[in-house]
Design a protein that fits this description.
One of its GO terms (cellular component) is cytosol. InterPro entries: Casein_kinase_sb_PP28, HAP28. This is PDGFA associated protein 1. It is a single chain. The chain is elongated and about 160 Å long. The protein has a domain of 69 residues. It has five helices and no strands. 63% of the residues lie in helices and 0% in strands. It is mostly helical.
Length: 181
């Protein structure tokens, strides 16, 4: 069964609104109460008044100091230990006239790292092209081995071609000799 029984939920309930007259009456009652309290505070300078208020009226300079102490008083351990966060940066607003647009702009950490990375890459490429890096030396050694292998393969091909040419020439000579007979 749903909440609220068979008749339905909370959505069909009648709403109660306060009338404007009631609101005005409440506001007037609050104003009267506040004005009565003020009158009691002003009129109660005798023995019936609060001792703190009497002291404030006598020594106005000391009362200001006490108010400052009260505002500075902190809860719990905060009053015992004075802590200031060194990482906290107080935000200061600058006027447009104070901004220095002509001065050198400081780069962020990411921008500096990106520039350093590009410079390191350029240095490495120069060293690589000069053949001073280990990778360049390994590449040059591999190239030398490949060149030797290609030279050997070309020499073998030439020898085979010469042998083939010699064989074909000797075969032609044999045929021409046999024909001449």
């Amino acid at each position: 069964m749903p909440k609220g029984g068979r008749k339905g939920g909370h959505k069909g309930r009648a709403r109660q609104y306060t009338s404007p007259e009631e609101i005005d009456a409440q506001l007037q009652a609050e104003k009267q109460k506040a004005s009565e309290e003020e009158e009691q505070e002003e009129g109660g300078d005798g023995a019936s008044g609060d001792p703190k208020k009497e002291k404030k009226s006598l020594d106005s300079d000391e009362s200001e100091d006490e108010d400052d102490d009260y505002q500075q008083k902190r809860k719990g351990v905060e009053g015992l230990i004075d802590i200031e966060n060194p990482n906290r940066v107080a935000q200061t607003t600058k006027k447009v006239t104070q901004l220095d647009l002509d001065g050198p702009k400081e780069l962020s950490r990411r921008e500096r790292e990106e520039i350093e990375k590009q410079k390191a890459k350029e240095r490495y490429m120069k060293m690589h092209l000069a053949g001073k890096t280990e990778q360049a030396k390994a590449d040059l050694a591999r190239l030398a081995i490949i060149r030797k292998q290609r030279e050997e393969a070309a020499r073998k091909k030439e020898e085979e071609r010469k042998a083939k040419d010699d064989a074909t020439l000797s075969g032609k000579r044999m045929q021409s000799l046999s024909l001449n007979k």
